[in-house]
Amino acid sequence: MATDALTEGIGSERFYWSNRMGRMYLLALEDVLGRNGINAILNGANLRYRIGNYPPDNLALGWSFEEMSALGQAIDDTYGRQGGRGIAIRAGRAWFHHAQKDFGAVLGISDLAFRLLPLGIKMRINMSLNAMADTFNKTSDQIVRVEEDGGRLYYHIDRCPECWSRTSVEPICNTELGLLQETLHRATGGKGFFVEEILCVARGDPSCTYVIEKRHVE
The domain 4-213 is classified under which CATH number: 3.40.1010.10, 3.30.2000.10, 3.90.930.12, 3.90.1520.10? Predict the structure, then answer.
């Protein structure tokens, strides 16, 4: 599991994604950075024990929030804040494609029957976001809730792995941003939507919150 260096100062309570989720995230980063790139980031994140040793493909809770946040910090340290943001968004979008295979039945958005339902775009958005929130809530220690207010949806992560124990003056949870973008893109047949993280625990906010405009970008 995570080294003492990762857990120092965090406290005794530990939270996890499933091994499968962690494995898919590392595979997504490998898609974006290549094998040498992901190995360099794992080394920089003090996660050398994960090089060539990704979590097993099962639903046991074994990929710690500390590991996830250490990767995010190492990406920013290596590529800079703007470069790291772009990589994290791309990794989030790639994560969706890996997740589609293993969590598609839970997410519902990869099922042909869902795609053929005569639903409006707004209904597809609501269903896809709630299905994704349910997936995290049921298979990990991440806590997610979705709220609607007029023409906007708010995707709240009350316990977020990406910024766990990190501090920042601006929102930094860009992997989830990419995942949300790709989820909406696929659920609505290729439409694009405005998604922005407006709150982040890393800067002292109560949750990591994303606002999603329900009107797609033309």
Answer: 3.90.1520.10
